[in-house]
Amino acid sequence: QVQLVESGGGLVQAGGHLRLSCAASGRLFSVNDMGWYRQASGKQRELVAVITSGGSTNYADSVKGRFTISRDNPRNTVYLQMNRLKPEDTAVYYCNARILRTYDLRRSSDYWGQGTQVTVSS
């Protein structure tokens, strides 16, 4: 009974900004790594950014310097601040979290948000 709920997508002009949010809820014991992926039409899903439970971050080269991933551990929420957006950033963005569930502490499981559309116009 764990779920991730995303919000914050939309339509923006090139050079604009958006902030995506993703909150985990349910019978979770802890939220470990969290990340954002995106999938453009006709393309494979790719990793955009990841943040560990300790706060270490990694970014795809295409977004480095423009996007910032962060997390609010008490709220089990991960954010993606996207600045200076480009048309090539257009995609469905999915959040991902590796979660240790209260009823099964022997293993962690990956969960995905429902996806949110980000469209950047020229």
Offer a quick outline of the entry.
This protein has 122 residues and is an all-beta fold. The protein contains no helices and 11 strands. β9 and β10 form a beta hairpin.
Characterization of the model:
The structure is a single chain. With 122 residues, this protein is an all-beta fold. Helix content is 0%, strand content 62%. The strands form 2 sheets. Strands 2, 4, 5, 6, 9, 10 and 11 form a 7-stranded mixed beta sheet that branches. Strand 5 (46-51) and strand 6 form a beta hairpin. The termini are far apart.
Considering the chains and any ligands shown, give keywords for the structure:
single chain, 122 residues, mainly beta, 4-stranded antiparallel sheet
